[in-house]
């Protein structure tokens, strides 16, 4: 049974949180509320999240400051942040959002379908990352216990098979990401699309590098 991803919704207005929950409920994931930047940071101390929807205009610690804290923490720095704002101060304000580490910056009122589609991309990537990490952990255990199996060459063959399966899984994600990038290029070349595509590329490159690093271990297992 696949565990649901957690999505952090940060807004000081309860009606806005309710609206976000209504929009994202169709994704069938776990939605976690936070009514302030401080509350969001507390939630991030204990739980892992696929993506954060962060309101810019909040009393006390605003969205920019909250994002800065998130990006300074090693545990949370790679979590995608989508900024939501009720006002548009122009390019400088938008640039500040991207400079703070956001992968997207959306002005209210926004298209519910577009927001849901953007969030679903990061949820899917998060789920794929979790699956690949679990598979990689199983493979390492298999390699470390290879000498205790007593099956002759069976352990090496099984390890090679697991590695091939992992590579195939990652290739499928890479194919999906490539299709997404082409779709973004066809639709627009705005900063949000570029930032989203770049984030996907960085994550997938890291996963491929980690998977390739396991290759020598398979060959060296007796």
TrEMBL record:
<feature type="domain" description="Response regulatory">
    <location>
        <begin position="6"/>
        <end position="123"/>
    </location>
</feature>
<feature type="modified residue" description="4-aspartylphosphate">
    <location>
        <position position="55"/>
    </location>
</feature>
<keyword id="KW-0597">Phosphoprotein</keyword>
<dbReference type="InterPro" id="IPR050595">
    <property type="entry name" value="Bact_response_regulator"/>
</dbReference>
<protein>
    <submittedName>
        <fullName>Two-component system response regulator</fullName>
    </submittedName>
</protein>
<dbReference type="InterPro" id="IPR011006">
    <property type="entry name" value="CheY-like_superfamily"/>
</dbReference>
<dbReference type="InterPro" id="IPR001789">
    <property type="entry name" value="Sig_transdc_resp-reg_receiver"/>
</dbReference>
<dbReference type="Pfam" id="PF00072">
    <property type="entry name" value="Response_reg"/>
</dbReference>
<feature type="coiled-coil region">
    <location>
        <begin position="156"/>
        <end position="190"/>
    </location>
</feature>
<keyword id="KW-0175">Coiled coil</keyword>
